[in-house]
Amino acid sequence: MPIEIDPPQIENLWKLNLVGIVDETYSPEEKLAVENFESNIICIGSTILTNPFAVISDISKAFLRIGINFNSRDYCRFLWFENSNLNKIVTYRFKVVMFGATCSPFLLQKTIVYHLEHNSDPLASQLIPHFYVDNFYVTEVEINVLGINWNVTHDSLSIKSSQYVCKNECLHHHLTKRQVVSIVSSIFDPLVSTITFPRFAIIPGNCHLHIFADASKQAYGLAVYVVTLCSSNLLLSKARVAPRPKLSIPKLELTALNLGSKMAKSLMSNSALAFQSCTLRTDSEVVLHWVHHNKCTDVYVRNRVKDIHDGEFPSKYVPTKENPADLVTCGVSFKTSE
């Protein structure tokens, strides 16, 4: 059973001084693991699009296979009715990692990595970069990869309108917290009607990355293109809500370019993709002046310019009308995307 009745004596409790406080005793390796957790999904998604063949697998009931240390189970208590008796409440403890907890995907990821690192098979270490929790799973005709349907017969990816229609219906009624979380957390379900496109969209050859960044009052984001001598293809895009308190448009443009620099580091460090070079592009001349001259005394600007310089990727200008990232920050209808 994944749960057990809590013993009468509670030995471990959360300490208030630990809530919301970063534990400075973390080793550099542990901090790096947290930072790399998100970038791993970017590399996996890119690899799927840039290789002629793709292999997937799934660990069934993965979270239920990870036990919680007996001495740590007091931290995972919850109240429930005993034998469906609404008048009697009993305390239970989880014996395995909880599905749905914020930390659960990370715990699953690190557990898999731990066992692969301690496996004597030489192939084990090669599998580590290709795992992202258990987001790859197989069906009979189609495979769901990161929330996008993959038709293995035609080797095409598709986004179906039904992925959002059922959620959109609840907008006409009173929303519950669970419904809101369900909609917001659908990171890989873009809010558009059905679109089908080939999975293997990158033509092999001398490939170069061009990352376009843009920002508006509502959002900032980027669009990543792979360019060869005879083709140009969209690899991925990313958008984020503009932070509060509100920043000026130039600072938001700089934030977008900094996001592009971080994306470039993740993609260029993935040896499986083997891109020859990477160029950052923005339509903000103010941002380019900050990056190229590095004389601004504003702390916010100076810190992000430093991050961009650390990436060592050239930053160049692109006219606003030719910047595809403008669609990310201003929005685009389904008809336009077709």
List keywords for this structure.
13 strands, globular, 338 residues, Nucleotidyltransferase, domain 5, alpha+beta, 10 helices, five-stranded antiparallel sheet
Descriptive report:
The chain is 32% helix and 22% strand. It is an alpha+beta fold. The protein folds into 2 domains: 23-63 and 102-196, no CATH class; 205-328, Ribonuclease H-like superfamily/Ribonuclease H (Nucleotidyltransferase, domain 5), CATH 3.30.420.10. Helix 6 (249-268) runs parallel beside helix 8 (299-311). The protein is globular, with a radius of gyration of 23 Å. 20% of the residues are buried.
Topology readout:
Layout: E1 3-5, H1 28-49, E2 77-82, E3 85-94, H2 104-117, H3 122-127, E4 136-138, E5 142-145, E6 148-151, E7 156-159, H4 162-168, H5 177-184, E8 195-198, E9 208-215, E10 219-227, E11 232-241, H6 249-268, E12 277-282, H7 285-293, H8 299-311, E13 315-317, H9 326-330, H10 334-337
Parallel strand pairs: 9-12, 12-13
Antiparallel strand pairs: 1-3, 2-3, 4-5, 5-6, 6-7, 7-8, 9-10, 10-11
Domains (count):
2
Q: Count the beta strands.
A: 13
Low-pLDDT runs of 5+ residues are 16-21, 136-141, 162-171, 187-191
Instruction: Determine the structural class based on helices, strands and strand pairing.
Output: alpha+beta
Radius of gyration: 23 Å
Order of helices and strands: EHEEHHEEEEHHEEEEHEHHEHH
